Amino acid sequence: MPLVDLPDDEEMAAAVARIDAWAARELAAGGFLVAAERQEVTDRTASYRWYLRFIGEEKDFITVWFTLRQRTLHHEAQFMPAPEENVAEVYQYLLRCNSDLYGMSFCLGPEDAVYLVGKVPASQLDDDELDRIAGSSLLYVDDHFPTAMTLGYPALYRRRPRRS
């Protein structure tokens, strides 16, 4: 059985510091990131988890979670609740969208809610990669949320006029 080199404490600390520094810079810049909080994970599934709250266009806020695991950074955004109508059409739409997404995909989560998820090697984390993850998450949610919600909640959802 092959032995796997696990990241040492210094490598994990460097990844945590990179994410913390990136979040602090984004908050200070006064852009789309309006809140960031780091929590230590105690259930041994990961080491740390960040809660990042961004201003959205179609949704007031888009929350992205970063979870630093042993070798990867897992990221996810809650996209929409389980559709109430046209369920097959919503899922078909999102599955078709997956082919155009870079580094992430739509999937089902708890209670059949839809999430946008992805993961990258922790060793590849830098400001550019964190910018890509955050920017892509916001773009994909804002681009696909109106269509998915219109299909899944036709009586309740109305697309917002674009902010100028």
Architecture overview:
The chain is an alpha+beta fold and 164 residues long. The chain has helices at 9-29, 87-98, 127-152, and strands at residues 33-40, 48-55, 61-68, 72-80, 105-108, 114-121. A 6-stranded antiparallel beta sheet has the order 1-2-3-4-6-5. Strand 5 and strand 6 form a beta hairpin. It is globular, with a radius of gyration of 17 Å. The relative contact order is 0.17. The mean pLDDT is 90.
Instruction: Work out the helicity level.
Output: 25-40%
Any low-confidence stretches, pLDDT <50, length ≥5?
none
Instruction: Give the topology string: H per helix, E per strand.
Output: HEEEEHEEH
Structural class: alpha+beta
How far is the first residue's CA from the last residue's CA? 59 Å
* Radius of gyration of CA atoms, rounded to a whole number: 17 Å
Q: Specify the number of helices.
A: 3
The pLDDT mean sits at 90
Biggest pleated-sheet summary: 6 strands, antiparallel
Strand proportion: 25-35%
Number of strands: 6
Mass-distribution shape: globular
Strand arrangement across the biggest beta sheet: 1-2-3-4-6-5
